[in-house]
């Protein structure tokens, strides 16, 4: 798994940056938290510097956004997913999207590729006979199931509250020259 990168510094005190990339398939899979040993050696000098480096298997960040937090059955859920790299720049990578109903059953699974770091193409309708409760949209990068992101939303029947407002005058009629009239407002 070792990779050698050489850089030449011609002036004393000059600092250079060396970028190394670790291929995911070369990381040991049996280790929960992989570490790599980074070794810096100067040609012509016996001494070398070693440092243990923690390797993050997290491929980037995923943010899921829905158009509202609560839906009625038969409504369409519109959502978008933002995929960002470690520098918080748009990341055009492939990721899985799953939608789970309130009973925990997966009702949809798809593999998509973000365009300019955004995926917005797949609204879905909540069936009329759906189970009420908390539904989930889960997304993760391909091969990175341990770092899945979840967005929850509620599905419940919304019934407009019923109320009644009544205005009752003290008198059933008012002469045209009356300057003031009294009434009572009742709300139920």
TrEMBL record:
Every Macroglobulin domain range: 62-155
Keyword Signal belongs to the record: yes
Keyword tags: Glycoprotein, Protease inhibitor, Serine protease inhibitor, Signal
GO biological process: complement activation
Gene Ontology cellular component terms for the protein in this record: extracellular space
Gene3D superfamilies: 2.60.40.1930, 2.60.40.1940
Gene Ontology MF terms: serine-type endopeptidase inhibitor activity
Keyword flag Signal: yes
Pfam families (UniProt xref): MG2
Family membership: Belongs to the protease inhibitor I39 (alpha-2-macroglobulin) family.
Protein name per its UniProtKB record: Macroglobulin domain-containing protein
């Amino acid at each position: 798994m070792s990779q050698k990168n050489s850089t030449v510094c011609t002036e004393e005190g000059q600092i250079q940056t060396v970028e190394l990339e670790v291929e995911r398939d070369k990381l040991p899979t049996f280790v929960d938290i992989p570490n790599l040993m980074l070794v810096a050696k100067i040609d012509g000098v016996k001494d070398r510097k070693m440092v243990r480096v923690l390797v993050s298997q997290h491929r980037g960040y995923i943010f899921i956004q829905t158009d509202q937090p609560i839906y009625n059955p038969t409504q369409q859920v519109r959502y978008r997913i933002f995929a960002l790299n470690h520098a918080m720049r748009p990341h055009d990578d492939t990721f899985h999207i799953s939608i789970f109903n309130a009973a925990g059953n997966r009702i949809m699974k798809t593999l998509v590729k973000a365009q300019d770091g955004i995926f917005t193409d797949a609204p879905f309708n909540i069936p009329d006979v759906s189970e009420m409760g908390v539904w989930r949209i889960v997304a993760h990068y391909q091969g990175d199931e341990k770092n899945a992101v979840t967005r929850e939303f509620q599905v419940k029947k919304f019934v407009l509250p019923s109320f009644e407002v009544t205005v009752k005058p003290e008198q059933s009629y008012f002469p045209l020259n009356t300057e003031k009239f009294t009434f009572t407002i009742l709300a139920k």
